[in-house]
Structures are given as structure tokens and as C-alpha cells.
Amino acid sequence: MDDKQHSNGLSTLFQPETLLPTQFFAAWGQKAPAQGERRLMVAILADALECFQKHFRATDSRGRQLWAEAERWLLSDDTTWLFSFVNICHTLGIHPLFLRRGLAQWKAQQLAPDASALPQPRTKPSVRSAGKRSSARSRGLRTQRNT
Q1: DSSP secondary structure string, 5-64?
Q2: What integer pLDDT is reported at residue 118 of this predicted model?
Q3: Residue ranges of the chain with pLDDT lower than 70?
Q4: Which pTM was predicted?
Q5: Which of 5, 6, 30, 103 is deepest in the core (most CB within 10 A)?
Q6: Dihedral in degrees, nearest 10, Cα atoms 82, 86, 39, 23
Q7: Which residues fall within 8 angstroms of residue 63, CB to CB, at 6 or more apart?
Q8: What pLDDT does residue 65 have?
Q9: Mapping DSSP to helix (H, G, I), strand (E, B) and coil, where does residue 125 land?
Q10: Residue 41 CB: number of other CB atoms within 10 A?
Q11: What is the per-residue pLDDT for 13?
Q12: Is 96 in contact with 85 (CB distance < 8 Å)?
């Protein structure tokens, strides 16, 4: 073996092979390239949900703008943008209509009048099988009659 062949053999031995990232991570059985994008998608969705709920009753212009942008993004059916609501939901395994339905219910609850402020319905006194009033009610009537 002459020096030229020997030097070519060594140089090719230590030259890196070209690998695509998918080939590298497939060999390791990892999904590392997608993990960063998935974390970003989770962060975008979490931020939109937080803006939607936090700024729902905002009185300042910035808060109202954040709420309106979040609602517009959450209700959009656009799939042309990688980070659209629908694409993020599909990537994360969330059904977009289910999430929207939950947000609509939350919004309706926020808009409903406070349940504790509403007058409570009157309950009828319980009736025994013999047709007599409950013992607490009849005791109250007896004490009123006796006085």
C-alpha cells in the first residue's frame, strides 16, 4: 500500500457521513426534532386560552385587543398557516370543536347573572305518607298555637 492510498483511506475513514436529522433521530428512536415545535404549539395555545379568559371582561383597550385577537384566532378555521388553531389542535391531538364548545360554555357562564344573586326557589314542606307535615314544621305550628 503506498502513502497516497493510505492517506486517502484514513481521510475517508474520519470524514463524517451526511445524515438527515430524521435519520439521526430515527436511529435513536427519539422524536427530538418535533419536540421543540410541539412545545411551541402548546405555548401558543396556552397563551391564547389565557388571553381569552384573563381579558374577557377587560376595560382597557390593550386587554380588549388581546381578548379579541385570541377569540378571532380560536374561532378561525384557517389551515394554511402552520400555527393556526386548527393545525395546532390536530398536531396535539385535540379536537378543535370540542375545545371551542368548552370555551363557548365558559363564556356563557361568565355572561350569565350570578346564580347566588338570584332569588332561591321556595321549597315545599315535606309531606309524610299519612298526610301530616314534617315534624319540624308541625312543631313550629304547635308552638305558634300554644302561644
Answers
A1: HHHHHHHHHTSPPP--HHHHHHHHT--HHHHHHHHHHHHHHHHHHHHHHHTTT--SHHHH
A2: 54
A3: 1-34, 114-147
A4: 0.56
A5: 103
A6: -60
A7: 54, 55
A8: 96
A9: coil
A10: 18
A11: 47
A12: yes
Count other Cβ atoms within 10 Å, centred on residue 64. 14
Residues contacting residue 77 through CB under 8 Å, at least 6 positions apart: 86
Distance (Å, whole) CA 147 – CA 144? 5
At 34, which amino acid appears?
A
Give residues with Cβ within 8 angstroms of 42, minimum separation 6.
92
Collapsing DSSP to helix, strand or coil, 133 comes out as: strand
Total residue count of the chain as it appears in this document: 147
Which residues are CB-contacts of 57 (< 8 A; sequence separation ≥ 6)?
110
> What's the rounded Cα separation, in Å, for the pair 73 and 96?
12
**What does the block give as the cell for 15?**
470524514
